[in-house]
Design brief:
Shape: rod-shaped
Structural class: alpha+beta
Largest sheet: 6 strands, antiparallel
CATH topology of the domain at 149-283: endopeptidase fold (from Nostoc punctiforme)
Strand order of the largest sheet: 3-8-4-5-6-7
CATH class of the domain at 149-283: Alpha Beta
Helix content: 40-55%
Number of strands: 8
Distance between the termini: 141 Å
Order of helices and strands: HHHEEHHEEEEEE
Length: about 280
């Protein structure tokens, strides 16, 4: 009887050529022995013959192979698990680095915006302070010149090329006021102090010298004496459109220039008459 051990496995172990040959030899030996035993039994039926066969033991070799295979499989599994852990750690590190970079960019952008806002606010404060100083000086000059009388309607008419420096009294005050607002924003319905529409600016300028003009451009275009565009003086009100139906007004400041709250793009601006020739003019000073 064979003493070969049985080893559980999901796969049948492959038989090598040497193992097959050895087993074939054993089988042949067994058959031969049985044949001799049969022959001897016929001759000597009264005396039985017993022969013990020593079969090769394969259990140790197979166990060693299985153990070696198990070690290899376990080592491969450990290597795979280690590599998986390294890959996961690398992925986490990359994700954290990406998040840190995004946070750094966000902070840098916020800092840049804050610095830009601070610079803009500082510039606006400086500009506002300069305008306030100019307006204060203008108010002082108006108080000094208020008793000198109007220089408008009693003066001889001059050409459109008259210099702003020749304006005196109330006309000079009006011109100085509108010039001081150059750069302010245009806002529909604006009446100051830092944003205007066209008629709001004109009304505020003449209020500096005690003249209360109507609020809208249509009424302002008929508030004084109609004058020729060839006879303009500083302080005259220019209008665009028809008298009584004007859609825009400004103030002539001399040297062929006028100041008006033009539009949201330009704001309050100093422009040449050729930039946008007016339709007519009125004189209220």
């Amino acid at each position: 009887m064979s003493h070969t051990a049985h080893i559980r496995s999901h796969r049948k172990p492959r038989r090598s050529a040497s193992n097959i040959a050895m087993r074939a030899g054993v089988a042949g030996g067994v058959l031969g022995t049985l044949a001799v035993t049969g022959a001897s039994g016929s001759a000597n039926a009264a005396e039985p013959v017993t022969q013990t066969l020593e079969l090769p033991t394969l259990t140790a070799d197979l166990a060693a192979q299985v153990a070696q295979s198990a070690d290899v499989t376990q080592q491969a599994a450990a290597d795979y698990e280690l590599q998986a852990e390294r890959d996961a750690a690398a992925a986490r590190a990359a994700k954290e680095a990406e998040a840190d970079l995004a946070e750094a960019k966000k902070k840098a952008e916020e800092k840049k915006k804050a610095e830009e806002a601070a610079r803009k606010a500082a510039a606006e404060r400086a500009e506002r302070a300069a305008r306030d100083a100019e307006r204060a000086a203008l108010s002082a000059s108006v108080e000094v010149s208020s008793g000198s009388g109007s220089s408008g309607s009693g003066s001889a008419s001059v050409g459109a090329g008259v210099s702003a420096s020749t304006a005196t009294g109330s006309a000079a005050a009006v011109v100085s006021f509108v010039r001081a607002q150059v750069g302010d924003a245009y806002v529909s319905g604006g009446t100051g102090p830092n944003s205007w529409d066209c008629s709001g600016l004109v009304q505020a300028a003449f209020r500096q010298v005690g003249i209360d003009l109507p609020r809208v451009s249509q009424a302002q275009s008929t508030a004084g004496t109609q004058v020729s565009l060839d006879s303009l003086q500083p302080g005259d009100i220019l209008y665009w459109g028809g008298a009584g139906s004007a859609y825009h007004v400004g103030v002539y400041v001399g040297d062929g220039m006028f100041v008006g709250a033009q539009n949201p793009s330009t704001g309050v601006a100093l422009k040449s008459l050729s930039y946008d020739p007016p339709s007519g003019a009125v004189r209220v000073l």
